[in-house]
Amino acid sequence: MDEVAELVYALDTFYFLLSGVLVMWMAAGFSMLEAGLVRSKNTVEILTKNITLYSVAVIMYLVIGWNLMYESAGGLFPSLSFFLPSSDPHTTADGFSYFSDFFFQVVFVATAMSIVSGAVAERMKLAAFLIFAVVMTGFIYPIQGLWTWGGGWLDQLGYIDYAGSGIVHMAGATAALAGVILLGPRKGKYTKDGKIRAIPGGNLPLATLGTFILWMGWFGFNGGSELAVASTDSANAVATVYMNTNFAAAAGVVAALILSKILFGKADLTMVLNGALAGLVSITAAPDSPAPLLAVVIGAIGGVIVVFSIIGLDKLKIDDPVGAISVHGTCGIWGVLAVMLSVPEASFVNQIIGLVAIFGFVFIASGIVWFILKMAMGIRATEEEEENGLDLSECGMEAYPEFVSSGQK
Questions:
Q1: Rounded distance, CA 351 to CA 261, Å?
Q2: Of 1, 166, 191, 323, which is the most buried if we count CB atoms within 10 A?
Q3: Domain spanning 3-395: which CATH class is it, in words?
Q4: What is the pLDDT of residues 68-118, one digit of tens each?
């Protein structure tokens, strides 16, 4: 390898790793967002879930997930030649550093699992959630990932999803939906006469910080998916992705703000925050191809969709404390379909087949796992534990203790 080739390789590897760090930082964003949108009595438990699910995802993807997704021969089913990726820090057939490729992919599976955390918040047993995380990150996500990024049948069909509106975001939301249906709503969320009772979050400044962190991390999520930066073409593509990602998020904010003002007469901050994330999810399937104004339109539509989706799910009594199913699921679907607005070779039929296949597999597989957990150990906290908050019952501490004993009289 000559000096120029070595420099290109080093730059691309460094960019891959730095993008992975930004995506890992999204774990902090999810933690802060969810901690801000749940009640204070459940803050420690939600933070424990987030740091632990990230760690579980990393280990499970190392042990089995990577090989199921990328070392199989493609097609519909993964091969059985799994358990631990290669320990040789070699160059892949695509010209990437093997370990940098692994690192970038492992933080993606953690993102998918983080989506589940917020949707089942405030009433799910911690142990049941973490057992599901083992299955989701080790098996469910990698198998449907094989179909697309692993060169499987959806990829061969022509399904297009640049950075994972469907593969990551809709998949995570679908797993969450299956769990929420079996789990049921939080106590007091819906009255006996069918009315919806708002349950405010405990720390909206924290939720806003989490949204900004996620927005920042998304530049690595989408930008890193270009997989290279050390050539003129790839550098220009990365710049386009960054620009469109930012435009879509901003448009989602403005659209959600305007719509919430029209519908509620108020500027609902929670809808505005979810509008930003909706715009980000909506552009993720094709951030490299739209013109800037089209990226604004795609993000704005996402910002509108997420508001109506949150309202609609509430009317169906599907209780999602942070709006994760709407942000990542409903807007993930929109993002996959929006590919057709800017990618000439995209096929409506192929995009629909991809959505149906991913949703169907993840929903059925997740539903089976959730049901087994429900029958075997229960997935819901007791009414007393829910009333007192999961912080005390699951973690034995409070996030915001009003009184701290100094030990002095």
A1: 34
A2: 166
A3: mainly alpha
A4: 898 876 777 776 655 666 677 778 777 788 899 999 999 999 999 999 999
